[in-house]
Amino acid sequence: MILDSIKEQFKKKGFWKTIEFYFCRVMSKAALKVVGTYAANHGKLHRNYIVFKNRTMQDMTDNARAFFEYLVHNEAYKNYQIIWMVSDKRKFRKCKYKNVKFVTAESRNGWTSPLAYYYGAVSGFFFYTNNTAYLNLHHCPGQITVNLWHGCGYKDVPREKRENTGASMMHFDYALVPGEAFVETKSRYWKCPKEKILPLGYPRYDWMLHPSMNSQDIIWKMFGMKADKAILWMPTFRNSEVLDSAESKIKLPFPLPGFKNEEELRHLDKTLKHLNVLLIIKKHPVQKEWDIEEDAFENIRFVNQEMLDQKEIQLYELISASDGLISDYSSVAVDYMLLNRPLAFVLSDMQQYKETRGFVFENPQEYMPGEKIYDLKGLEEFAVHVSGEKDLYREERRKLLPVMHQMPVKENYSKALAEFLKL
Predict the structure, then answer these.
(1) pTM confidence score
(2) In this structure, are 192 and 249 located in the same domain?
(3) How many Cβ atoms are within 10 Å of 220's Cβ, its own excluded?
(4) What is the average pLDDT value for the chain, to the nearest integer?
C-alpha cells in the first residue's frame, strides 16, 4: 500500500516534487514527536483555545466553518482564541477575524508546521470534520476533541477496513450525528461507546435552514441564470483519488450513475430546457476521471468547491436553493429531509455498491423516502414531477424524519452544540 502511494506521487508530481513531499512528511512526523510530545507533557492546557481542522485541502468549509462562524459572530465568545489548521496559511492573509490565527497543516507538499502540533497539544477544544491527522495525538489532559464529521448516510465502512479504522479518525470525546438512527451505526463504525455519539445534528444545517440569501438570488449569483425550478444532484464518488477506495472497484459506463453515455445526458438537458428546470451537478471532491464536456449543456450546470469559494456561497446554502435533490447513498439525502422537499435516489449500481462498500442498514431502501431511479427515464420523470410540484414521497418523509433526525428541528444547531459543551 505504501509502495502504491509512492508510485502515485511520482506519477502526479514527478521525481523532485515527490522527494520534497516525502522529506516534508518525515520532518513533520519528527515535529509531531518532538513538539507534540513536549507540549503535551510540559505545556499548559488553554481552555479558551479552540482548534478547527477541516478535510484535507478543503480548509474553511463544512461543519467546522459553520460552527466557527457562529462563535466569531457571537459576542459571548470574544475571549476565545481560535486556531484554524489549513493547507496553506498564506491563502488567508486577507481574512481579518479578531482572535483568529491560521497555521499550516497537511499542505500540498506534505508539510505541517510545528506550531500546529503545539496548538493541537495545548488547546482546550479540538474540532475536526474528517480526521485529526494526528495533529493532537499528543495533548494536555483535559482537552475535549469533537468529531463534527461530514455526514451520516447509507454507506458502511469498506469491508476490508472494518477491523482497522484509523486512530486519527476514532480518537474523540464526542461525535455528531443527525439523529438516533445513526447512534448505533456510528458507534459500530468508530468502535466507540454509544455515549460518545451525540444526535444533535450538524452546524451546517444552519446554512441550509437559514441561508444568507433567498433561493433566486443564490442561483443568480452562482450561475447568472433563472429557471422555474432547480434540482441539485450530488452523486457520491466511485472512481476516487483515494488509492484504497472500495468504490473504485465499481465500473460505470459513464461518470454519472444512471447514464450509458453523454448522449443520454444531452437528452436530459433537452427535457430540462423544455421544462425550464435547472439541473445543478455538484462534483464530489475526491471523484476523478470526470470526462464530461461541461460547457455543452444549456440547463445543466456543474459546480465544485472552488467555484463555491469564488462566489462566496456555502454548499448548504446552495442546497437550500434547490426545489428537489437527486442523491444515491450519500449523507446529503438525510440532511435534505429537513427541508421537506422531493428526493430521488439513483440506484443503478446498488448491487455493486453492496458488494464493495456495503450499507449501514440491512434494507437501505427502507430509509430512502424518495423516487428510486435506475436510468434516463427515471431522471426525466423526476424532473417532470419537480416541475409540476408533484411530491410522491411526502408521507414517507414525514414518518422517517423523527427516526433520522432529532426532533423538534432546532432553530440553531451551532448554538445547541455550544450549549452542550458549555462553551
Answers:
(1) 0.91
(2) no
(3) 14
(4) 89
